Structure formats: C-alpha cells, structure tokens
C-alpha cells in the first residue's frame, strides 16, 4: 500500500483544463473586414442635345462606382478624396473632367466652334444633419473653357424600406465670365459664321436644378437606379441666342451589380 501510495504521489499532476475556443470572437479578430464597395452597370439617359437645346436625345451611360472606407470614391464624374470627416462635417478634393461641346452636336451650334474636353480640379464642403446634407463645391477647368463653377445645394436621402432608398436635391450653379462666354456667348466671328447675334454674357447664377432619385435592390447584389431632373437656365445664360429652351429636363435609368 505504501509503494502504491508513493507511486501515486510521483505521477505528474493533470494539466489544467483550457477554456473552449470562441470561434465567433476568433473570426471577428482575425478575418479581414471588407471596407470597400464596387458597383458596375449601365443604362440610358434622355436629355437635351446641348445645354439650352429644345431637342432631346437618348445616350447610353456606363456606370462604375467604387468606394474605399470613408475617404475614397471613384465614379463616372471622377475621383474624390475626403480629407476631413468629423461630426457631420466633411471636406474633400476631387479630380474630374468637363466634357466640352462639339459644334456638330446640333444645327444651332454650327459656326460656334468646339469647346475641348478638359480636366477639372475642385473641392467640396458638406454638413450632414441626419438624412439632410448641405453642400458647397467649387471646380476649376484646366484648359478647355477655363471655367470656374460654384455649386450650392441641399440634398435628402433616406431608406423607405430595406430595399428602397429615395432622395431629392436642389442646387444653384454659379459660373465665371469664361464659362458663360464659352457656352452662351457669341463673338463677332461666331456671329458671322452662325448667323446668331453677338452676345457677351456676364458671370452669375446660370442654372437651378431640382431632382429626385430612387435606388431599389432587386436582390442582395442587383439594383436598379432611376433619376429625374429639371434644370432651369437663369440670368445671362437664359437670355443667350444659343438657348432655345430655358427648361432642361432629363431622366435616366440604369441597372447595376454590387460586389
């Protein structure tokens, strides 16, 4: 019995039991969290043939939207980088383009010459109050029309159901002399070539836009987007001999896939 007791005493102690593995906490800690979003799609837009035209046309519109975190967004308008985002206030910079205008786009433009495609650089400040956003932006065209454009507006966006998001926006657009002269002015040479009277517009509010949009998730990945806008040309832009119609409506519809 003593030998048995001594043998028992010399045996190594049992190791302490380890707690079970919390698989959910392990996954949350070590699995990478996706902080990007990519949407690819296409559709069509029905809009004026040029700004101020009374004739409308259908144009195809490819659509790509990529976001990374809360600081990078790439969409058909260009690239935007958010440098500051705090307590609803954000400040961002962007690089985009101005599409210009071709005198072959419409008979009314013959003799006015082309406005070249050009790059733009700009900045935007915005403040969010729940679903409402107040924003102000400024964009400078490098080359082309050498436009300086200011945009001031208010937007609203909120989910109505789990699959439907509705939004609305109202904004005013202010343009400098170079933009107004490029898109709405007629100099002596252009007047002789086109038959339009000479006209030299000044800087100011050129347009007011109101729009509504909707996004509906057909599935977890497929979505459809629609947008309707009415632009109203104002001031010297509206009085230009190039302008046939002050009211500038447009509608678009597109289908996209979200990765």
Automatic annotation (TrEMBL):
Keywords: Cell outer membrane, Membrane, Signal. InterPro entries: MipA. It is found in: Cell outer membrane. Residues 1-11 have a biased composition (Low complexity). Residues 1-29 are annotated as: Disordered. GO terms for cellular component: cell outer membrane. Pfam families: MipA. Its main location: membrane. Belongs to the MipA/OmpV family. This is MipA/OmpV family protein. It comes from Phyllobacterium salinisoli.
